[in-house]
Every structure is written in C-alpha cells, then in structure tokens.
Amino acid sequence: MWLCTIIGVILGVILAPLTLKVWNFAGYSLYDRSGLDDSLLKNLGTYSWDNIIVDDLIITAYEYNSKQPRFYSKYFNRLDPGFYDLLIHQAVAASSSAPFGFNPYPFMNKYGLEEFLVDGGIICNSPALYAYEIASDLKDKTDIRVLSIGTGIGKPTSAEPTDPGKFQDDLQKLSLYWDFAYLIETAAANVILE
After folding, report:
1. What is the dihedral of CA 115, 86, 104, 67, to 10 degrees?
2. Euclidean distance between CA atoms 51 and 1, whole angstroms
3. Is residue 106 within a helix (H) or strand (E), and if so which, with residue range?
4. CA pair distance 104, 96, nearest whole angstrom
5. How many CA atoms lie within 13 A of 47 on its CB side?
6. C-alpha to C-alpha distance for 189 and 193, rounded to whole angstroms
7. What's the pLDDT tens digit per position in 28-53?
8. Which residues of 125-134 are buried (b: 16+ CB within 10 A; e: fewer)?
C-alpha cells in the first residue's frame, strides 16, 4: 500500500510539469484569428445570403454553448434569422474555427445571446453527410452533387459509374448508412458534449 503511494507521488512530481504544458496548450489556440477574420472580410466583403446566386450553399459550424449544429444557408436563414442571419464571411469564419487552431468565433445572435461558433467537424468530420440530408429531405432534391473540401484523401477511380443499376443500388445502401451514421453521430455528440 505504501509502495503504491510513494510511486504515485513520484510519478505526480515528474509528470506535473508536462501536464501543465498540455493544459496550457488545450486552453489557447495556436493562431490569432484576427488575420483570418480580416482576410475573410476583405475577400468576401459584406455579402449576405440574399447575395448568393445558388440556393444550396451550406456552411457548417457548431455552437458550443447550446451544443447545436449550425447549418448556414438561405433555407435556414429564412427559417430562423435569429440564429442564422450571419454574413457569409462570418459563417466561413465560424466554420474555420478548428479547436487549437483558432479561438471560437463569437457572434451575438438576433435573440441577444452570444454564441461561440466552432468548426462543424466537432460533431461530424465530414459535414457532407448533413449537406446531403438537408438537400434530399428538406428540398426534395434527387440529383444531388456534394463538394466537400476538407481532410479527406483518396482519388476516384473514374468520373462516371460503369453500371448505372449497380450504382443506384449502392446509392440506396449508402443512403441507409448515412441515415444510421447521422443518428449515431448526433447521439454521440450529445453524450460527449454534455
């Protein structure tokens, strides 16, 4: 019993400085977000969702305090402007706020609540799943193309499917998988972030 206590104290003394370094790293971002915010404002200006030509642009983020995903788009902006009425550069800044990289993007919504927005990858590493679900369910679209710019790797083998029937079957199986993955990720995010 005493031997375990002595070993624990020795390990605590040795590891304490390392723990403090890790704790400090977790509490601060690596980069100052002012450069990112200035660049986004300069390049995207004060464009709002009404200035966007396409209806299907979705920019994902995650509101840390309420533990809610945010899908910034024309659709959600019209549905609830209190939460979704950000300028395009603000939505991109929120979506770019990867933990440890940049501090959360602070935003005062129209309800008077300050939101702290972080990268949507917190709840879903590839938000293409959500984009697909929104396009297919909310907009009743059938011909859907998703452009996901992110951390994925790999090169497609061909641009077009060789067997359209097999492609349709695979698409239906993939849709079921995405429904399942969506439910699992939502449940996991609720448990982890509570």
Report:
1. 50
2. 70
3. strand 105-108
4. 9
5. 16
6. 6
7. 677 888 888 999 999 999 999 888 88
8. ebbbbbbbeb
